[in-house]
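Aim 2, interim progress: modelling of the cytidine-5'-triphosphate-bound target.
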Amino acid sequence: MSERLDLQGRHIVLGLTGGIACYKSAELVRLLVKAGASVQVVMTEAAEAFITPVTLQALSGRSVYTSQWDAREPNVMAHINLSRQADAVLIAPASADFIAKLAQGRADELLSLLCLARPAERCGLLVAPAMNREMWAHPATQRNVAQIAADGAHILGPGCGDQACGETGDGRMLEPAELLADVVAFFQPRLLAGRRVLITAGPTFEPIDPVRGITNHSSGKMGFALARAAAEAGAQVTLVAGPVHLPTPRGAVERIDVMTASQMHDAVLPRAAAHDVFIATAAVADWRPASLSEHKIKKEGKKVAPTFELTENPDILAAVAALPQPPYCVGFAAESENLLAHARAKLQRKRLPLIVGNLGPATFGRDDNALLLVDAQGHAVLPADGSTADKLTLARSLVAEIARRLEHARA
Ligand code: CTP
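Predicted structure of the complex, ligand included:
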């Protein structure tokens, strides 16, 4: 599978200010470059006390700027030239002092100067605070952060946890991978701004006794990718997840963990009407054991294998689609054969506007896939050229398709 280049063609000015988190910025440069971005590093004098420009030059492939008097710029206007080329300015780490400077609009060195000089309407300012917890909690810092946010800056984090000073609390800079995800999300179109999206994901687990149960191979990857893509598109996401080992996507994602189909049903049904979209990616077990053995079923003394009576689970998607005012319902059909015919049958049986088919056993747990979109009018494949793509790329395309249909319905 080819690497996804989420930042291809983006030019990012990465500003480092004084803080021990500067060591993480080296890794951040690598991740940004790996994602396809070109990165121009600018450092304050205090940042140079923590990490050398040589390291960042080697990782970014560009010489670092540290002074507004840099003679490499023929017009001696590094602050103008650098900010005009950038698609975003990311300050990571952003010290308490630097945030105070931004709040006041001061411009006495290159980095604050270029933040002030940047064309704000087409070059976003992303700020990743990094400081001791007392400094972060101080009313002056909170006031300054609120001020720069009101002025249009996007505040990334901070995280919570162990700090270099030995204390524990809020103020840590986010990890490089988290910052990368936030920068990627910043560049996604806000196609679902103001919308609420409910997603089921993963398998369910139907217990037989305290140690055994019925489940399936669903990894939850498609549902989690959709949750991430919907959050990137500006939606408020509720993610109801069966037992999976996946991290919750960053951003506005509320996760509810469940085990059984009944629990998933009980988590979804009361919430469904408050959402604009319901995407059912979960591989819900169709049946569960009719009774749960209180203790482990033992082999000892049994001559014949036990048999289990099964009872049908509620159909969550059909129940949501049958609500008086249902959200826009998108079903998934994982099949092993005759994908189009089965998907079309499910579309009608569950009374859905859209169903997404894939060939299940070939794709469970895999990172790349192809989807078949089926509605009353016809069908289409994603990716449109008939190839395969990773699940996040597919999820973004599907989110764009759903957004288009919602707009169409509203018009
Ligand atoms: N689904 C659900 N609740 C169930 C069963 C399925 O919400 N109890 C949803 C799935 O999340 C998926 C769609 O319905 O979006 C199709 O599920 P699938 O199991 O493939 O369809 P079934 O109706 O169970 O048909 P079959 O098992 O015969 O393929």
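The domain at 11-186 is CATH 3.40.50.1950 (Rossmann fold). The mean pLDDT is 95.
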